[in-house]
Design goal:
The chain is mainly α and 528 residues long. It is built from 21 helices and no strands.
């Protein structure tokens, strides 16, 4: 009888364990919590701009006949952009790691694709390409930088002993890439691809704002123009569902293709490459060549497309250059303040959330869909709600918008870093009977450093993008507002000069974070 009782107790404990490990249950709980919170907000202080979940469902049902064609259009653009953007980012990242001396130059090219304001590049792409190609290009641009960072992070995570062996046997960088780095890169690479799924959908929708005939982005613009909040949020929810399916498919592929992964970490330092001065010169030459090449190959009208010479003249050699610089630098000061605050807040919040996800996995199942929806919903849909909740358009709202832009990618990269721990490290800590707190501090946090700095490298330029977006759509101040004003008044010299200024600052921020990464990882490597 005692043995039967023990069996029953064990069976009960096993059933309870299975219940606690049921991911579907926690995901459903997260959905219920989201709906309840939404309902409370919609009945409370945000009732004017936030429709109730039931109202949104009813509107979705009434409008559903309008969705299939719009979903197909946006999905087609997002898939095209996702494929070509990721192929280009993967190729550039692999070349950069295979030929370490060009990594700094390639990173600056990647940053350029990410930080050029949509409001500046959108109209130019519209007049340059035919049909829906401009919107697919914007979707590709939206995924390029995140996948590039994931590729670099993954390829650097290869085991140093294996790389040393390849070099000792006379193998080249490309031999190491083919035989060691590619396999080691898959977990981090798939982390980048997961981020790119909602980014592609969002990029396609933003592209559709510039004049598409159909698609979820165009559908949302029409809903906002008619002040139909229920329809606008319904479209946002459908877009989130589409992005979530893409995220889930990539996550499934990741589990299937990296089932062998038992955790890996590396403190490999970012490559120092060429002399810094030579690097800067080469980067300028390459970026100028791309700039001139784009204008020449696509025959962009000189009234809209400005050359580097035009920008130089506007900022430095024209009689009114001093006044021109003053206008841009005044706006830049506002943008730098907005970006810096959003960067710090976004990095802290996403890191804390990532830590909580790793410490107690059910939290990830509960709140990850909500975090992904924040990334998938176009910020423009949230602006009325943010403004009403904060009592107007103020600095707090700008910080929230910047945080929203950088939050999800940073969360994914930091979470990946915290989980990139070798099993042997856990086993060693178990031998010494280390406490969970000691394991976290001495094993997980050091192993997370590469992922944390990858997140910081993304969040640095990302905060500038978020700041200009917030200024464009929300505050009416800073470089974002200046670029919008320049476009609407056909001041294209000012538009290009402001955009180039933003790009130069973003490259500087990315380089500064890389320098800090070398210092921190170098010291950690010396003490490990």
């Amino acid at each position: 009888m005692a043995s039967i009782g023990r069996l029953q107790t064990a069976h009960s404990e096993h059933a309870e364990h299975n219940w606690l490990e049921d991911d579907r249950l926690w995901s459903m709980l997260g959905l219920v919590i989201t709906i309840v919170l939404w309902q409370l907000l919609a009945f409370g202080p945000l009732d004017r701009y936030l429709p109730t979940p039931l109202t949104i469902v009813r509107t979705l049902k009434d409008d559903w006949h309008l969705y299939p064609s719009n979903i197909r259009s946006t999905l087609g653009l997002a898939v095209r952009g996702w494929i070509f953007g990721n192929l280009a980012a993967t190729a550039l990242g692999a070349i950069a790691v295979g030929i370490p001396r060009i990594e700094v130059v390639s990173s600056r090219i990647a940053i350029a694709t990410y930080t050029i304001p949509v409001i500046a590049i959108g109209p130019i792409l519209k007049v340059t390409f035919n049909g829906n190609a401009p919107y697919a290009v914007l979707a590709g641009i939206a995924v390029f930088f995140t996948t590039y960072v994931g590729t670099i992070l993954g390829l650097r995570s290869a085991d140093r002993a294996a790389l040393d062996l390849i070099r000792a046997l006379g193998g080249s960088s490309f031999t190491a890439l083919r035989r060691v780095r590619v396999r080691a890169a898959l977990p981090a690479y798939f982390a980048g691809l997961r981020i790119s799924a909602p980014a592609a959908v969002l990029g396609a929708m933003v592209g559709e704002w510039f004049g598409a005939n159909k698609g979820l982005g165009q559908f949302m613009v029409a809903g906002m123009a008619n002040a139909n909040e229920a329809r606008t949020w319904g479209i946002a929810i459908v877009a989130t569902a589409v992005a979530s399916i893409g995220y889930a498919l990539i996550a499934l592929a990741s589990r299937l293709l990296t089932a062998w992964d038992k955790g890996s970490s590396s403190t490999a330092l970012p490559t120092r490459s060429l002399n810094p001065v030579l690097n800067a010169v080469l980067s300028v030459i390459v970026l100028l060549a791309i700039w001139y090449g784009f204008l020449k190959i696509f025959n962009v009208d000189s009234f809209v497309g400005k050359t580097p010479r035009d920008v130089w003249r506007y900022l430095f050699s024209a009689p009114e250059a001093g006044a021109n610089r003053r206008v841009i630098f005044d706006a830049l000061g506002v943008t730098l303040r907005d970006a810096a605050l959003g960067f710090v807040v976004g990095l802290i919040i996403s890191s804390l959330v990532a830590i909580s996800f790793v410490v107690w996995r059910p939290l990830e199942r509960i709140f990850l869909p909500l975090a992904m929806s924040i990334r998938s919903v176009p910020v423009v849909a949230m602006i009325p709600t943010i403004a009403l909740a904060l009592g107007g358009r103020n600095l707090r709202g700008v910080i929230i918008i910047v945080t929203i832009v950088v939050f999800f990618p940073t969360l994914v990269l930091v979470s990946h870093g915290l989980r990139s721990v070798r099993v042997e490290a856990f086993e060693l800590m178990a031998v010494y009977n280390a406490s969970p707190r000691a394991v976290f501090i001495k094993v997980r946090l050091p192993s997370a450093l590469p992922g944390f700095f990858a997140a910081a490298r993304f969040a640095g330029p990302g905060s500038l993008v978020g700041a200009t977006l917030a200024e464009w759509l929300y505050s009416g101040k800073g470089l974002g507002a200046l670029i919008l004003q320049s476009g609407t008044t056909s001041k294209y010299n000012q538009l290009w000069s402001a955009s180039v200024t933003l790009l130069v600052i973003a490259i500087g921020v990315y380089g500064a974070i890389g320098a800090l990464e070398r210092i921190v990882l170098g010291r950690f490597a010396d003490t490990s």
